[in-house]
Amino acid sequence: MREKELRRSMSVFPIGTVMKLTDLTARQIRYYEEQGLIHPKRSESNRRMYSLNDMDRLLEIKDYLSDGLNMAGIKRLYKMKEEEKETKANKTLTDADVRRIFYDEILSQGGLSQSDPFQSQRPKL
User: Fold this and answer.
1) pLDDT tens per residue across span 7-36
2) Res. 4 pLDDT band, cuts 50 70 90
3) Which of 34, 16, 22 is nearest to 71 (CA)?
4) Side-by-side strand order, sheet with 48-50
5) CB-based burial of residue 41 (10 Å sphere; 0-12 exposed, 13-18 middle, 19+ buried)?
6) How many CA atoms lie within 13 A of 96 on its CB side?
7) What sign does the CA torsion over 35, 37, 38, 39 have?
8) pLDDT tens-digit readout, 51-78
9) φ and ψ at 50, to 5 degrees?
10) Higher confidence at residue 95 or residue 27?
């Protein structure tokens, strides 16, 4: 994980600071946690501690609500984003994909301009 992302994911802000920075009430913040939209860490004394990523998400939720999206829609949106991220992470390359990538790389490195034998297999944009 890069240093910047590591710092953004560190849970260091108590709920009072988050309330001031997001202009949300404690009840609203806890409700979004109950809905599974944010996941604050707990300190040793069981206090909720929030990261910059949590605050970004809270502000994003606030914007979605002001745009007229309801809680079910927001949940669905985040679920779709998560599924898309997992799909990208789990996507495996087929043999044809590997051949095409390899062929393109050879052409770009060699400066060759032959016709692409895989062109018929490429999707049209």
Assistant:
1) 899 999 999 999 999 999 999 999 999 999
2) confident
3) 34
4) 13-14, 48-50, 41-42
5) middle
6) 7
7) positive
8) 999 999 999 999 999 999 999 999 999 9
9) -115, 150
10) 27
At 41, is the secondary structure helix, strand, or coil? strand
Token pair 């490429």: residue: 122
The two tokens of residue 84 are 């898309």
Query: Does pLDDT of 114 surpass 70?
Result: no
Side-chain-side CA neighbours of 103 within 13 Å: the count stands at: 14
Compute the mean pLDDT over every residue in the chain, rounded to the nearest whole number.
86
Using CA atoms, how far apart are residues 73 and 76, in angstroms rounded to an integer? 5
The count of other CB atoms within 10 Å of the CB of residue 81 is 10
Q: Contact, 18 vs 54, CB < 8 A?
A: yes
Detail the DSSP E strand segments found in 1-125: 13-14, 41-42, 48-50
Give 42's strand partners: 48
Which tokens go with 72? Answer: 């079910």
Task: Let me know: does 49 contact 40? Beta carbons within 8 Å.
Answer: yes
DSSP 122: S
